[in-house]
Amino acid sequence: MSSISSEEIISILRNEIENFEMISEEKEVGSVVWVGDGIATIYGIGHAMYGEIVIFENGVRGMVQDIKREQIGCVILGKEDEICEGTKVTRTGKRAGIPVGDAYLGRVVNALGEAVDGKGAIEAAEYRAIEQEAPGIADRQSVHEPLETGILAIDAMFPIGRGQRELIIGDRQTGKTSIALDAILNQRGKDVVCIYVAIGQKSSTIARLVHTLTKYDAMDYSVVFAATASDSASLQYIVPYAATALAEYFMYQGRDVLIVYDDLSKHAVAYRALSLLLERSPGREAYPGDVFYLHSRLLERASRLSDALGGGSITALPIVETQAGDVAAYIPTNVISITDGQIYLESDLFFSGMRPAVNVGLSVSRVGGAAQTKAMKRASGTIRIDLAQYREMEVFAQFGSDLDETTREQLRHGRSLMELLKQPLCHPLTLAEQVILLAAADDRAFSDMSAERIGEAKEQFLEYFAAHHAALLDRINEKKTLDDGLWDEIMGAVKTWKDGYLHEKQMYEK
Question: Domain containing 51: what range?
């Protein structure tokens, strides 16, 4: 057994004393008194702020959500397995936030901004708090530039502008996500950053969506935030705010952003679970009293900034699921009152083969024509009124066959419009394609066809224009206006197709 001499001990002590540096650091430390279901109650931290991040001694982070006289409640942003009664907790003095930067484009991340796509860590440009005040009135400008979805039924009747908040609402399995997906695909080459926020979705559903975005080269300008159904309620609660923080990073650079929240019904359910665990008083349908503020402070952050601030924008497409078509339920009415319009998808239309299943009567855009190009405004004309009249006449027509010629003509025109508005998934149309289809519909080019043949005729019509009038389509896409000369040229081309091409194919009813 070796022994250490007194000289060696003195040498070690002298070296330690010489290299000693006193660091004074003040930390407020508390301890966990109760933990469970993603919630921790902490005693001993008296000065925590709402929304502040605290760190448990095992490295897991938490976010303060409840402040009482003697203790605070926080949601755990991670696994709670190693957290138990007596675990030490330290204040950070920082608000909850995520790293942001251009490197996020093309990636799939979780609610904390951490990559979950297996492509390695993401290099951040800065750190941004997930909760931010919405831009004030003086910092905004009116919505005037369209954000085209490529879906004829929406761009023609319920236009969405950059900086608008348009709700997509309907029962489950009626094509709500499909509309949002088409809108993202249509932004290719238009310098719009797209962010898809999956709240409480199955992992397989998110993987399928990412595969579709990759297949159509849309991931290059997109980011997917995923808080899956297997994640805790706390992560499902913060994920839309985290995604909006990234969207604001791009917006304040002067860029346009499209953000899809899929869906806010599950978001409200996650917040209800957290609130009940934090022992907040339940209100209607057991939701807490501030559930309206939950979504209003999120959606108000979508705006079009003034030119002085760069003119960037966030366009929000929140999705809400209804039960048996009940748009008067608690969460749907809340979000309807916050947004600038809604696209209502009807189950009966969907199952009858009308896709997208947009209900013309209950859907509305409160921005309206202000967000439409002049070309689309002129081409769309009376389509919405014609469809409304068709649906009204259709009800009466089924009770009797003795109809005058004018009524029969309106029914044929309305039926052809319904067929023209059908659009397959992942096939958005350009502005020019939408304009020429509406022009042909206005000229009653499809009215005399059988319903079964209109879809085929529509494809042949677009192929005909692409082959014989490509320069005309390019001018429409470039000018985005329709003067009388251009309109007459379109109508002349439609007439040539109608008189020659159609009769050769014998597409008309006999």
Answer: 29-94
